[in-house]
TrEMBL record:
Top-level taxonomic group: Eukaryota
Protein name: ZCHC4 protein
Main subcellular location of this protein, as a coarse class: cytoplasm
InterPro entries: Mlase_EEF1AKMT1/ZCCHC4 (IPR041370), ZCCHC4 (IPR039846), Znf_CCHC (IPR001878), Znf_GRF (IPR010666)
Region feature Disordered, mapped onto this chain: 1-21
Pfam families documented for this protein: N6-adenineMlase (PF10237), Zn_ribbon_GRF (PF06839)
Record-linked PROSITE patterns: DHHC, ZF_CCHC, ZF_GRF
Domain called GRF-type: residue spans: 37-79
Keyword Methyltransferase: yes
Record bears the keyword Zinc: yes
Underlying gene: Zcchc4
């Protein structure tokens, strides 16, 4: 059982309809006493039509947007029998990873004692194998001679879970990862809470073990449990960032709390790169809880400060993020990825990445590399893309995508270079757009003709 039957609900597939767009679903959030799926407490949703709540509220999995990954469903007012509750608990237990984190740590200790010739990694099970287990995996593909270097970069060893909507792992290109780390160091941070940034975590851990004077530490919070094979319990917590759920319970929560506690001025920054299809409101609510955790660690308080954050997300989510975090600003830096051809740097002739850094740090402190074409705007007091011209009328550098935007006097704002003012629509649009008033635009990009779930700008696929 998956907690209920979607097929007879007659409500369609919540997993593909999320977001409060026209005729979509609204997230009501984490309700006290919510039922749980294998991914922790489920989130409460309601169907909407023209912005109005419509119909029965229901619970669905917080983490999985694809029903194939988790089909949990329950009406808010549904009476669930004792038998079904017990069956559900059993189901949730069964759907936890085979080995515990503790067992994986033990296995790792044994693994590194093996000579190179006996170090195997099963590619099908995505698991380090001990010799006694070879037999069981004999008809699986495996890698041999796993070196210490390979163990130190698990993000290269594990395949990225990009086929699944649920995980959507897009790994930073080296250049972007190095840039982030250098920025963090230059800003004087000593601890990085890496939420869904395994590659950043990995270069920090790797440097820390190799360079004696490297002082930065990282704690990885991620839903991808495969990482527990490579990191100790104070280096990795199995965590769901859509419902702030620690799979390891109070002990894991305590690990995180301890990490956030800054002794002798070791400043903490949180860096996160969530799946883009994710629910901004659910993420924001979890991040606020992590911020609160940070705040509580210091009894005297941080003089009304917020935990510093880098939230890495596409620029077209700017207004959504600012809704929840008014103190954030968006940096022009384009974050590049390894396994996404479209999101590599524009300078090499490929498309430009739409992914940016949102931060609550003072923008002028975020120094962007001049050799990659960024410059400092003295009026805006921040680094901007070279193509981002300061508009005298808006009095700011208005481009969001790195291209030079142009000011429209009628719209009283800067618009994309490819847009023209349309007198019919009374706003700027593409030359070949069809004039019609549509207020049912996509929730993500604002364009008409599709919904958030099929938005082409989200096709990190
Ligand atoms: N660019 C980053 C990876 C970002 S991909 C890097 O190179 O380090 C998104 C990450 O978020 C993945 O590691 C994925 O496992 C994780 N993730 C996806 N859903 C999550 C969830 N519900 N809770 C926590 N982490 C999640
Ligand atoms: Zn689930
Ligand atoms: Zn196997
Ligand atoms: Zn302007
Ligand atoms: Zn215009």
């Amino acid at each position: 059982e998956g907690g209920g039957n979607m097929a007879d609900s007659g409500e369609g597939d919540p997993g593909s309809l999320r977001g409060p767009g026209a005729g979509g679903l609204a997230l009501l959030g984490l309700a006290p006493g919510a039922p749980s799926c294998p991914h922790g407490p489920a989130l409460l949703f309601v169907k909407t039509s023209q912005g109005q709540e419509e119909g029965r509220r229901f619970y669905a999995c917080s983490a999985c947007r694809d029903r194939k990954d988790c089909n949990f469903f329950q009406w808010e007012d549904e009476k669930v029998s004792e038998t079904r509750l017990a069956a559900r608990e059993e189901y949730n237990r069964k759907h936890q990873p085979f080995f515990t984190h503790k067992q994986n740590v033990e296995r790792y200790k044994n693994f590194v004692l093996l000579p190179l010739s006996k170090r195997r990694f099963c590619q099908e099970c995505q698991q380090l194998l001990l010799p006694a287990e070879w037999e069981k995996h004999s008809d699986h593909q495996f890698l041999c001679d796993i070196s210490t270097a390979q163990l130190k970069s698990p993000s290269q060893l594990l395949y990225p879970l990009e086929n699944k909507k649920t995980n959507a792992q897009y790994l930073f290109a080296d250049r972007s990862c190095q840039f982030l780390l250098n920025l963090i160091i230059d800003l004087g941070f000593r601890r990085v809470l890496s939420v869904g940034t395994p590659r950043l975590h990995e270069i920090i851990q790797s440097k820390a073990s190799q360079e004696e004077d490297f002082r930065v530490r990282s704690l990885l919070l991620d839903i991808d449990f495969r990482y527990s094979q490579f990191y100790a319990e104070d280096e990795f917590c199995h965590y769901n960032m859509f419902n702030h759920y620690f799979f390891g319970g109070e002990a894991a929560r305590e690990t995180c709390r301890k990490f956030l506690y800054q002794d002798n001025g070791e400043r903490v920054i949180m860096v996160t790169d969530p799946p883009f299809g994710g629910l901004v409101e659910a993420l924001a609510s979890s991040f606020k809880k992590l911020m609160a955790m940070w705040k509580e660690t210091e009894k005297k308080g941080h003089n009304n400060q917020e935990m510093p954050i880098f939230w890495i997300f596409p620029y077209f989510f700017e207004s959504r993020i600012l809704e929840f975090f008014p103190s954030f600003s968006m940096m022009d830096y384009q974050v590049d990825y390894d396994n996404h051809a479209l999101y590599k740097h524009g300078k090499t002739g490929r498309r430009q990445s739409p992914v940016r850094i949102f931060t609550n740090l003072t923008p002028s402190m975020i120094v962007l590399p001049e050799e990659e074409g960024y410059r400092f705007c003295a009026i805006c007091q921040r680094y901007v893309s070279s193509g981002n011209q300061h508009c005298e009328i808006c009095n700011s550098c208005t481009s969001k995508d790195g291209r030079r935007w142009k000011h429209c006097v009628l719209c009283k704002k800067c618009v994309k270079p490819s847009w023209f003012h349309c007198n019919n629509c009374n706003c700027c649009a593409l030359q070949n757009h069809t004039c019609e008033k549509t207020d049912a635009g996509c929730f993500v990009c604002g364009k008409a003709g599709h919904k958030r779930s099929t938005c082409p700008s989200l096709s990190r696929p």
